[in-house]
Design goal:
Length: 386
């Protein structure tokens, strides 16, 4: 319910959480600087040059700020009223993508639009969050048993399966599992969550003990996925093959010690030992050049951002905004946890970027839309009654 006021627009700007925006800007700028460091060579041009990924990332950051500003101007009711329409559109786009995409390392999830490429799957997270929030916030809805979660689970599973099976993009698809944590915040039994962790533990144990025949595993995992899991579990020693990325990443991070080698002084980085060092493995650049202190600051910034978003979720005056806020927090948490775990060799390498930090326009725009819709919903809470 909304209070009528001629100053509604002004009150929204006053209600915007500028602390969250500050965290977004700080993380983005630190990421941009480290992208330049990851790609830097002694003959390298300016940080603003398009010949360097950092120059392109700067354009993505500036355009994302404009996009965020536009989102803050849109009436927040649009996301609730048109939630299912947005979701349907993104599902259609996901289905069409493989017909228009070019193959990128076996994945059919990238569409070329002139000089740029976009990955629609990155935007699907946001609109899936909106659809789930809309369904779970409808009048009279309450999670009493697993049956009440069938529809939300389907809303989560449809884009997840399309991305995983149809587009062959496993990493991005797995992030949708973050919505299970959202279901837990809305009353899902902790037993279901516990069974999920237990199932993962059983799978890990079975793989570790090598109980299942290889021919069976080959039907479930692609060869490179199986190999990466075996490397993490210590079943396979392959420092020059599937374990190369992680091995070089650990060398880079370890060599940084406490204070790091200094900005633009990372030898692992300069000699390009670490593959994907400006995208999925950007965190190892921080470790090498800024050391323990730098990695601690980056991790602290992410933890602060996620905690802040959880605080925003708690203060929402309507269920839709609250569920959406929890979705944002859970998606960022899963991305952050998997990326850092992957770089440190604790989790298999599955190609998940560090939000607002890794190089890439699609993921940066996707996370910006995800976050700024939340800021818009939160900013309008002052116009709502409990």
């Amino acid at each position: 319910m909304y209070q009528g006021s001629t100053n509604t627009r002004n009150s929204i700007w006053q209600g915007i959480d500028w602390f969250t925006i500050a965290l977004f800007l700080i993380i983005s700028l630190i990421g941009w600087v480290n992208i330049y460091g990851a790609c830097y060579t002694f003959e390298q041009s300016s940080i603003f040059s398009f010949s360097n990924p950092a120059g392109k990332q700067f354009v993505w950051i500036m355009s994302a700020l404009v996009l965020g500003f536009v989102i803050l101007l849109i009436d927040e009711k649009v996301y609730d009223v048109l939630g299912y329409i947005f979701y349907a559109i993104v599902i259609v786009v996901l289905l069409v993508t493989p017909f228009l995409a070019h193959d990128v390392k076996g994945s059919l999830s990238w569409i070329s639009l002139g000089p740029i490429s976009l990955q629609p799957a990155e935007f699907a997270k946001c609109f899936t969050a909106i659809a789930i929030a809309k369904y779970m916030s409808r009048y009279g809805y309450e999670v009493r048993s697993w049956r009440d979660l069938v529809v939300p689970a389907m809303l989560m599973a449809v884009p997840m399966l399309i991305i995983m099976v149809w587009q062959r993009e496993t990493g991005t698809a797995l992030v949708f599992a973050a919505f299970i944590l959202v279901f837990y915040t809305q009353g899902m039994s902790g037993k279901i969550l516990g069974y999920g962790f237990l199932a993962v533990a059983v799978v890990v144990l079975v793989l570790k003990l090598q109980i299942i025949p290889d021919e069976w595993l080959s039907k479930v995992f692609q060869p490179h996925q199986k190999a990466r899991i075996e490397v993490v579990l210590g079943i396979r020693e392959d420092p020059m093959g599937y374990g190369y990325n992680v091995a070089q990443s650990l060398i880079a991070i370890g060599s940084g010690r406490f204070l790091g080698k200094g900005y633009l002084q990372g030898t692992q980085t300069k000699l390009s030992f670490v593959p994907e060092q400006h995208t999925d493995f950007i965190f190892c650049t921080v470790g090498e050049e800024w050391g323990f202190v730098g990695t601690f600051i980056v991790i602290a910034l992410y933890v602060t951002l996620i905690i802040r978003i959880l605080m925003l979720a708690q203060r929402q005056r309507d269920t839709f905004s609250q569920i959406y806020a929890y979705s944002v927090a859970c998606i960022l948490l899963v991305h952050f946890t998997i990326n850092i775990g992957m770089v440190l060799g604790l989790l298999p390498v599955i190609g998940i970027p560090l939000p607002f930090f890794s190089y890439g326009g699609s993921q940066f725009w996707g996370f910006t839309i995800l976050l700024f819709i939340l800021l818009r919903l939160d900013g309008s809470r002052v116009n709502k009654l409990y």
